[in-house]
Design brief:
With about 200 residues, the chain is α/β, with parallel strands linked by helices. The chain contains 5 helices and 7 strands; from the N terminus they run E-E-H-E-E-H-E-H-E-H-E-H. Bound molecules: guanosine-5'-triphosphate (GTP) and magnesium ion (MG).
Amino acid sequence: MSLFNIQPEFVTSATKLEECPTESLPEVCFAGRSNVGKSSLINVLLNKKNIARTSNVPGKTQQMNYYQLGDRCYFVDLPGYGFAKVPKKERDRWGKNIREYLLDRKTLNLIIHVVDVRHDPTQLDEDFFYWMGMNEKPFCVVLSKSDKLSRNKMNQSKAKVRRIMKEMNIEVPILPYSADTRDGIDEIKKLITEFVTD
Ligand code: GTP
Ligand code: MG
């Protein structure tokens, strides 16, 4: 059965690695700045309006939320980074917890790094690309909110992200998509399926 026909279930929220479920199923996590549309992407993929909570105010997702797809895999919605309203001390602790998760979680098969297509990658985004590359983590970039740009502008954004990564010697899929029109969603589903099935 296709992964995306399975009825998803919310499992748990974790703040750090030790609170995550026992390593068993392959995992796909969704990372990126606050408000870029990580939780929305999970909803679109799972065909649920609101299994992952979304908001037009940044900082909605505060914990690592686990969704299970039968006996196939987990999707993990991560809190966004770069959210200025969170006190620095808390941001640092969060950063450490997420870094540990990304580095040490053995069952993490794919990291989907979501970037809002309308904005150039920030320093934090570039640091993230670099860090993923350095640590040889399996990741891809999803350029969200493609409905907000003309095709021409979108291609320019995609080329820019590709250029930045090329300078870092990183070559990963860059997939534009829109939660509103669902353009590009099939390519993302295909990639996820490849990474969670062996
Ligand atoms: P945090 O949990 O705060 O890190 O944010 P997030 O990355 O999970 O973003 P979320 O999914 O909550 O979406 C933020 C806002 O962007 C919401 O108002 C969404 O409706 C909107 N949004 C997400 N994806 C798209 C998209 O593809 N197109 C458009 N037009 N809006 C989108
Ligand atoms: Mg969220």
